[in-house]
Specification:
Helix content: 10-25%
Largest sheet: 6 strands, mixed
Strand content: 25-35%
Radius of gyration: 19 Å
Number of strands: 13
Structural class: alpha+beta
Length: about 200
C-alpha cells in the first residue's frame, strides 16, 4: 500500500527476491506509476497500467493453482462475491491467474520470475476501495502466500523421482550441504537463498 517505492526499498526487495524470497505487491489508491514501473523493471515482471475506476465483483477462483491446493473440498460457485471500486491492470505475458474479476481480468496473479515468486494484487485492499479483507478468501490466500514461500520436508522421498527439498539454514559463502549416511556421502544440486538452501535430488 505504498504510493511510491523508494529506491533503497526497491533494491532491498530485489536482493531478497533474487535470493528466492517471495513478494506480495499491493498497490495504493494513488500509486505513482513511474515508481512502481521502475521497480517492476528491476524485477522484470512487466508494466503497471493506469488505474481503472470500475466497480467489479471478484467472481472466479483458479482451483488448479497451487495456492488453493487442499483448500476447498468442492468448487464453490455461489459465495458472496467481494468487490472493488478501482484496480491497476498489469501488462505481463508470463503469469498465472489466481483470482479474477467478473470481466476475467486478474485480481490476484502470480508473476513468474526465475528463482522466486511475485504475487500481484491488482487493487488496494483498504476498506474504502474493497471489502475483500472481509471475505473468507483472505485467509487461505495470505496464509498460502507464506506457506508456498518455503517447501517443507516430506516424511520420505522416493529415490527414482526428482525431489526438491528446502532446508532452513544460512550458509557462509563457501559452505555447502551434503547428504550422508553410514556408508555414503554426496553433494546434491543446491541453490542458496536468503534463509534457506534448496536441494534437488
Amino acid at each position: 500500500d505504498l504510493e511510491n517505492i523508494p529506491e533503497i526499498i526497491a533494491n532491498k526487495l530485489l536482493e531478497f527476491s533474487n535470493k528466492g524470497g517471495s513478494l506480495v505487491i499491493i498497490p495504493n489508491e494513488n500509486s505513482n506509476l513511474n515508481s512502481y514501473n521502475s521497480f517492476f523493471k528491476k524485477l522484470n515482471i512487466g508494466n503497471l497500467k493506469n488505474k481503472i475506476q470500475d466497480t467489479l465483483k471478484i467472481t472466479s477462483i483458479n482451483y488448479e493453482h497451487p495456492l488453493f491446493k487442499n483448500v476447498f473440498s468442492k468448487q464453490v460457485t455461489n459465495f458472496q462475491y467481494p468487490k472493488v471500486f478501482n484496480y491497476y491492470p498489469i501488462l505481463n505475458t508470463s503469469r498465472s491467474k489466481i483470482v479474477s474479476f467478473e470481466n476475467n481480468i486478474s485480481f490476484i496473479e502470480q508473476l513468474n520470475r526465475k528463482n522466486s515468486k511475485v504475487y500481484w494484487v491488482a487493487s488496494p485492499l483498504n476498506r474504502t476501495n474493497s471489502n475483500f479483507i472481509n471475505s473468507p478468501l483472505i485467509v487461505p490466500v495470505f496464509y498460502n502466500f507464506a506457506k508456498l514461500s518455503f517447501k517443507y520436508s516430506e516424511l520420505f522421498y522416493r529415490i527414482a523421482n526428482e525431489n526438491k527439498i528446502d532446508i532452513e539454514t544460512s550458509l557462509n559463502k563457501d559452505e555447502i550441504l551434503k547428504i550422508t549416511n553410514d556408508n555414503l556421502s554426496f553433494i546434491p544440486l543446491q541453490q542458496t537463498h536468503q534463509q534457506m538452501v534448496s536441494i534437488t535430488t
